[in-house]
Amino acid sequence: MIIYSEPFDKKILFEMQSHYFGDMVKGVVDVEQRKIALDAEMHSDLETLLLENGSKQQNLWGFNLYPEMEGDDFLEFDSLINIRPNQGNRSRSVENEEIQKVIKEIIDSLCK
To answer: Taken in order 101, 87, 2, 14, is the CA torsion positive or negative?
Structure first.
């Protein structure tokens, strides 16, 4: 598991995808601090890592990256940690389009 707050080479994702799932890398983003944690078997492990490093729960959202895909297929909003009725998010997806937009911007700015 690793936290990125500075840009990194997308090639790293190709190495990570083989660690757990073969075609996917799990991640969690902090939309306030604009950093991401990658490479764990469960989103909750990445969430814990970010919480231990100063993130706040309400700012964390889970996602999956598919390094071999491009465009809309590269990023998937699907994680149990996204189920937050108290924040108006009742599914595993990120339902708020503004939050989705911020997440995409953060991932695009970090993953080069």
So the answer is: negative
CA distances for 20 relative to 16, 43, 96, 98, angstroms: 8, 12, 29, 30
Residue indicated by tokens 């083989």: 18
| Per-residue tokens: 91 | 């599914």
Question: Which pLDDT tens digit goes with each residue over 46-87?
Answer: 999 999 999 999 999 999 999 999 988 999 999 999 999 999
For 1, 15, 42, 99, the CA distances from 94, given in Å and listed in that order, are 22, 26, 17, 7
- Model-level pTM? 0.95
Q: Which 3-state string (H, E, C) describes 4-17?
A: ECCCECCHHHHHHH
Domain boundaries, the chain: 2-110
Edge-to-edge strand ranges of the sheet holding 75-76: 2-4, 35-38, 25-30, 60-65, 75-76
CB atoms within 10 A of CB 86: 6
